[in-house]
Specification:
Shape: elongated
Number of domains: 2
Helix content: 40-55%
CATH class of the largest domain: Alpha Beta
Largest sheet: 7 strands, mixed
Structural class: alpha/beta
Length: 317
């Protein structure tokens, strides 16, 4: 178990985002209660109601359990915001994330904790035998996981599985936006954290409907581009804007030289080809891109210096 700070008053915090899961809440809570009562560690269960439009909140308020805490968001902000709301008030040295649909049984949590205690910062669940529709869920998820693993360099099979055990201190140090919760393993890996993946049970949904569709795969790829850009070029944006700018300048010069060559040696009029226009457009785009890179550099320096932020972190022994 990780060393506790003054914030970490408990061993384990279990964070469960809830959105229209009225048919699953009580069964999930009963499973969590039975499993955690059999453990020797202190714990809390944080249910975050993400603006549910059904009776989820009413059911949550009826739960009589001193280990249960309920956070009610004003509206539906999305899974990332719901997870962050639970993380922010969590007190555990270990934070376990769990979906509210009950497809990952609570009985898998001790297995994750046991592996976590071997010295890892993140133990990620892998729905190796997944009970979902192959075309709408399994295939898009497989493709998205392969792309994320390849681009990020994080060797996981299942980024989308919410069931994970995190180093609480490291997790609370992350700032998440948009729908970036699926990239938490990437952030932790890039920050130098140790990661391991274990197979967990996955059941069919017994109540309610899935909130995910095929369009989610496209969002994953777009979010991944943002994550990779921020990781690799956040402190040196000129490498991106300047590189693209010089490429455009090179094209502009090449188009211009070609146009002049055709004019002098082939007797082609400038209006017979689009090359002069392409040359001018490329040169302008290149100059604008380089200027945007300079502006981005100024903004980044102001970001670090105005808030006394460091560009590095020291790993504690």
């Amino acid at each position: 178990m990780t060393n506790k700070t003054t914030l970490d008053l408990l061993d384990i915090s279990i964070v469960v985002p809830i959105f229209n899961e009225q048919g699953n809440i009580l069964r999930l809570w009963q499973e969590l209660h039975e499993v955690m009562q059999s453990q020797s560690q202190s714990y809390e269960i944080i249910f975050v109601n993400d603006g549910s439009s059904d009776n989820s909140l009413k059911i949550l308020k009826k739960i009589q359990d001193p280990q249960v805490r309920v956070v009610n968001l004003m509206r539906n902000y999305g899974q990332t915001a719901a997870m962050v709301a639970g993380i922010d008030i969590s007190k555990g040295s270990v934070v376990v994330m769990l979906d509210g649909d009950g497809q990952n049984p609570a009985s898998s949590i001790p297995k994750l904790i046991s592996k976590f205690n071997e010295g890892y910062d993140l133990v990620s669940g892998w729905r190796e035998f997944r009970n979902d529709h192959i075309l709408t869920r399994k295939l898009p998820s497989f493709i998205a996981n392969k792309i994320i693993a390849k681009i990020s360099g994080v060797p996981l099979h299942d980024f989308g599985c919410t069931l994970k055990a995190y180093n609480g201190e490291m997790l609370r140090g992350l700032r998440l936006y948009g729908e970036m919760h699926r990239f938490i393993p990437v952030y932790i890996f890039w920050a130098g954290g140790s990661i391991v993946e274990i197979s967990v049970e996955h059941r069919e949904r017994s109540s309610g409907a899935s909130k995910y569709g095929l369009n989610r795969s496209i969002k994953v790829i777009l979010d991944l581009l943002v994550v990779v850009f921020l990781h690799r070029f956040f402190t040196r944006p000129m490498y991106v804007f300047g590189g693209f700018g010089f490429f455009c300048l090179f094209l502009g010069v090449a188009f211009g030289i070609t146009a002049v060559y055709l004019k002098l040696y082939k007797h082609w009029s400038f209006i017979q080809t689009p090359l002069p226009l392409l040359s001018l457009t490329s040169l302008m785009l290149g100059g604008i891109s380089i200027l945007m890179g300079l502006l981005a550099e100024i903004i980044i320096r102001n970001y670090f210096e105005s808030q006394n932020k460091s560009i590095y972190k020291v790993k504690l022994p």
